[in-house]
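Reopening closed ticket. The problem is back. First fold of the pair:
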Amino acid sequence: MNRNRPGTPWKPKPVPRCDPDRALGSLLGLAVCEALAGSSQTVFPDAPLPCGLFGDGTSMALALAESLTEMAAVDQRDQMIRYASWFRYGHLSATETCAFIDESVRQAIVRFEKTWDPEDHGSEGDVCLARMAPVAIFFYGSPEKALEACAQTTRTTHAGPHSLEACALLTAMIFMSLGGHGKADILRHARHDPGLAQVPPPALDEPDTRFSLAAMSALRMAVESFCAADSFAKGALSCRQYGRRAMAAYGQLAGAWYGAAAIPRPWRESLVKADLLRRMLQGLLEN
C-alpha cells in the first residue's frame, strides 16, 4: 500500500502480542521447577508441591521483570540495584529473605556496590539461565531486540562467552515457544547450535567440573528433557535429576510451549506468591 496516496490513511504494522497463557506458563514454569528442584521428596503431578518456595533464579527473574517494566528498557544499573535489594533485604524472594545466593552473583553484586559498574568482566555460570523469560516476553515484538537485551542483562552477572551463548540460545527457544512454533522447529534450532552440540552430558553421579561450560551443560539437559517428554509434568520430573539450573531452563522453555494451563493444577496452586508472578507478567505484557 502506498502510504502517501491522498485519502488513504497509513496504518502502522501491528506489533505481535505475546500469548498471555504461554507467557504466564514460562514464569510459572520457572518458579514451579525451582520449587521441585529444591525438594528431596517424591512428587506426583496430581499432588501439591512438598515445598512451594521458588528459588534465587526466580527472585532475580522477578527483579529483572520489575526493572524492565518500570524503566521501559534495559537498564543494567537499575537491575543491579534490584538484585542487591534482593540479596540484602529479600526483595521479591519467596521467604522475605535471601535464603541462598550463587557465589558468582554475590560477587557481582558486591563489585557493583563498590564500583557502580553494572557489568561483569568474564565470569561463567549457569544461574543466569533463570532470567531469560522476562526478556523474551518484554521484547516479544522483535527477536533482534530480545537477543540484544539478553546479552545486556546476562552481562550484569555473567559475561563469559559460554554463559552468553547459552542464554541467547535459551532466549531464542523461549521466544519461539511463545510464538507457538512446533517443538520440532525449536529443537532443530537448538541442535544446530555448535556450542550446545559440543557439550557432553554430565554424569549423573558426578557433576560437570568444567565450570566454564556449566550453563551450556544445564541447557542441554533441559532441552533433552523437553524433547523426550509429551507433557510439562513428565519433562519436569525427568529433568529434576539434573539440578536446579537445568530445571530453571526447562521450566521457562516448556512452560512457554505448553502454557500455564498445562502445568499441573496442584503444583500451580501450592506455589507461594503465584499472584506476584501474575502481577509481574501483567507489567511485561502492557509495555
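Second fold of the pair, where the issue appears:
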Amino acid sequence: MTKKIFYSALFVMLFAAAPLFAQDKLINGIDANFPPFAYVGPDGKALGFDVEALDWIAEKEGFAVEHKPMEWDSIVTGLKEKKIDIIASGLSVTPARAEQIAFTKSYWVIEQVVLVKKDSTKTLEEILTTDQSIGVQRGTSDAQAMEDSNGKNGRKYRLVTYDSYELAVVDVLNARIAAAVMNDAPAAKAASGQPVKILGLAGIPNEEFAYGVNKENPELLAQLNEGLTAIMADPHWQTLIDKYKPGEVH
C-alpha cells in the first residue's frame, strides 16, 4: 500500500468513527427547578430522581451522560434540533409531544394538584370556578390542560404563566395569585418546607412520565428502554424512591 492510499484509508476510518465517539457522551436536557425529579443544587450540580436514575442506566449501558439545564418551554424543540439527546426530567407523555419526539416506556404516573397558602380559606371549587388567578409553568402539559379546560363545565379562572413552578409558589406565598397548579411531586416538596398546602386535585387528567428521544435515534430509544426495565427491577430503584420521595410509583 502506498502512503497516499494508506493515509486516505486512515482518514476514512477516522471520519466514519467520529459519530460513534460523539455519542460517547449524551446530553440530557433537564428543568433546573423541578424537584424532586430534576433540579440544580447550590453548587451547580444536577440532582434529582431522574438525574440519578439516568446516571445508573448510563453506567450499565456503557455511555456517559451530561445533564444540561434548559428552558422548559423550548426543551422539546432542543431535542428535535439535536441540541440534546435525551429529556429525562419529569417529561409527561402527551399526544402533541408524541408527534414530535419518541417516548420510552413510562416509569411514573403523576396527578395535577392545586397549591394554596397554608392559611387560605378558599375552597377548591372557589379556586376553579370564580375567576381566581392560578399560576402554571409555561410549556408544561398541565398548563395546556388548564388552558383547554378553562370555560368548560363551570370552570373559570385566570392563568398566570411562570418560568418554573418555584416562581409560582413564591407568588402564592406573596398573595399575588390565589393558587398554583402543578404535578403532585413538586407540590408535596413545596408543602414540606414552606407555608403552603395541597388543596386538592386540579380536575385535569393524570399523566405518565417517560424519557424523550429524537425520532431519528431508535437505537438510543431501545437502549433507554432496556435500562429503564433493568433499574425498575433493581433494588436501586427503591433506594431512589426512598431518597427523593417523589410519590407513588406505578
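Update: turned out to be a display glitch only; the data is intact. The first helix runs from residue 3 to 22. Residues 3-109+208-244 form a domain with the D-Maltodextrin-Binding Protein; domain 2 fold (CATH 3.40.190.10). Please close again.
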